[in-house]
Amino acid sequence: MSRSAHGREVGSGGTPSAGVFTKSRAGAPPGFFDCEAAGLAWLRVADGPRVARVLDVSPTRLDLERVSPAAPTREAAHAFGRALAVVHDAGAPAWGAPPPGWTGDAFFGPLDDPLPMPTGAWQDWPGFYAEARLAPVARQGLDRGALDADDARLLERLGERLADLARPALDDSPARVHGDLWSGNVLWARREPGPDGARDAVEAVLIDPAAHGGHREADLAMLALFGAPFLDEIVAGYDAAHPLARGWRHRVALHQVYPVAVHAVLFGGGYRAQLRSAVRALLGDA
Questions:
Q1: Distance, CA of 215 to CA of 177 (rounded, Å)
Q2: Do 207 and 165 meet the contact criterion of CB atoms below 8 Å apart?
Q3: How far is CA 65 from the centre of its chain?
Q4: Which of 26, 33, 145, 43 is CA-nearest to residue 86?
Q5: Where in the chain are the domains?
Q6: Which of 4, 34, 96, 248 has the fewest CB neighbours in a 10 Å radius?
Q7: Quick check: 49 pLDDT over 80?
Q8: Considering the entire predicted model, what is its pTM?
């Protein structure tokens, strides 16, 4: 999501370094950076997308490899879509499962104010989305005064309708999702040198995950929420590697409800109106 990363390039002694990018926050929630590091490691699979390498992690900072930016291309976007399907197909043990080695809540939101994101093991996607995403964000919104009782009731009603709204995508199994795959968390860089020697090719690099066992369509919906470059090519590459369930485009708004709700809780403004409009449309109240 849109976030304040508070990152800076540093070396081992605090001197500038071309090879290290550091995210730091003295008052970070306990385990915040360990959770992110675990998610990055979990997303790194053979033939999957390139994932930023973790160089060091502590309670107050995370050192990552610095990625030299490059302009995205259609070819790179198509390849990213195929690779994203690969990491999704690597799977997760349950809906809501956290990365291996991490227990407790994950986090979703900017570094200076991340919201707790429940993890666990749900038997089906509707139960997971209703109990681990919609209900918690409604409570968070009420606690902060960002949402009111009518907003919470809309989210509750949506949770009750998920099984109907999600068909025929309910047959899918838990995917290994990035969980916060807005366009800002996909960097574009020159491909790392490989056996083919293709140094000039561009590739996507994943950063800042909220990794968990979730629905594959959710990552694609996040890419669409704020607009990813060459999104049609990403989707085409994905669909070629793992055909999407019939009617997936009609479910994009459903998967976007949670991130829009988080934005409403954290930033208010037009996001609250956007949330209400989207949920009412899904419920047929518009």
A1: 7
A2: no
A3: 20
A4: 43
A5: 68-283
A6: 4
A7: yes
A8: 0.91
